[in-house]
């Protein structure tokens, strides 16, 4: 499966945020999208999933134009996203959140065990009472366990302790090995370097740099752009 | 003692009528956040279904499922044609549903005329219980409302459909991102809300006149119940109906019906004053 954004534009009201962003993510690759705060990363995630309407350009999934499809149709087409904020229904229980994401009662433990014992047996707990890190883990676990061919993960490591960051990295790597494509929005540069096949740098709503992660020049340029 | 028992039974009967009339509004306004000023007209149309059933010599009880189906279909058409295009803009929803209520009244007038119609009581007579005679139809009404409200509450609290509705109410975008078809769910919820209003209309038809303006009398009471009981939780409708019925019955007992309406309104204003910032009523 291949996700392609071609000259994608979007914004909030009359304020444009993304200016002709083009990128691709294919099966079996991890593309790390990096950029400083306010670069438009979260806006891009929302536009890819359809929560925010594109004002121009096109979004294709395996060549099929999905630009005007509602988010639920995009999810059914194979796209899944985790959001930086508002990723779960806080007023509902953990089990309810799993049911809403299509997991049968029998498969709940499989999702909750993704991060070891941290979430095990927490099905009856109201999701809003989980810590920020636990909510991040649950959100990532749901996205990973859906088996969706294409994942868009917005800052999934934010608020996670180092051991869980490493565990999440292992799971994302496993997803790639299983032939899934991942667009990883990540501030944690070391993790991005470890996982990514390619880098894309977003600045002020435009793609300004990028290249293979194995290229040391690219990695150095990416690091410089984030530090300056 | 007998007078008090009778007052209590009248109170329970009022509670049942308020609950069934407000149930649909509790779904549409309380859960979905759609301010539907045409809800009273849905009740009025349900009453007209009962009238048509009677005019054609059919059994009155047939009007309950018929009203539910007819109003469900009407609700679906209105949701697709009107509500889904504007429901994120409350001011437009208010204007549009106000216009819709006027249209529905005019259509009822064109089809049935302005004349008051009546639907005869399908179960005339009274039953003696608790030492007093009380109309048998009202006992039946209370029982039917209890079943309809219980089934609706269960459907919205225990089923996957109810879970999905609650998720959409909490965060529509997030629900869509989980793959939930929010449009279809909203359509069904609006249809069910209209259907319960239709059942309410068919149930109350034998208790009063059936006429195009009849819906206007039901709308304020339904909103009072939802406001007092609290939005977001459908069981708040039952709580709100209980409180409003208790207040009205009590005030009618000591004063009169006019003061009962004023007391209900004052109660709703008080609840709104003390309401928490989240859209949940004082009691819920």
SSE layout:
The complex is a heterodimer of chains A (228) and B (284).
Chain A: E1 2-12, E2 15-26, E3 30-34, H1 41-49, E4 54-61, E5 64-65, H2 71-77, E6 79-82, H3 94-100, H4 108-112, H5 132-146, E7 150-154, H6 162-177, E8 181-185, H7 189-195, E9 198-203, E10 206-212, H8 216-227
Parallel strand pairs in A: 3-8, 3-9, 6-7, 7-8
Antiparallel strand pairs in A: 1-2, 1-4, 4-5, 9-10
Chain B: H1 2-31, H2 39-55, H3 63-86, H4 90-112, E1 126-129, E2 132-135, H5 136-157, H6 160-170, H7 172-177, H8 182-204, H9 214-229, H10 235-254, H11 257-274
Antiparallel strand pairs in B: 1-2
Helix pairs in contact in B: 1-5, 1-8, 1-9, 1-10, 2-3, 2-4, 2-8, 2-9, 3-8, 5-6, 6-8, 9-10, 9-11, 10-11
What structural category arises from helix and sheet content of chain A?
alpha/beta
**Count of strand segments of chain A:** 10
Per DSSP E runs of 2 or more residues, the count of β-strands of chain B stands at: 2
The CATH class of chain B turns out to be Mainly Alpha
Structural class estimated from helices and strands of chain B? mainly alpha
* Helix and strand element order of chain A: EEEHEEHEHHHEHEHEEH
Helix content of chain A: 25-40%
The CATH level-2 architecture of chain B is identified as Orthogonal Bundle
The coarse overall form of chain B would be globular
The topology string of helices and strands of chain B comes to HHHHEEHHHHHHH
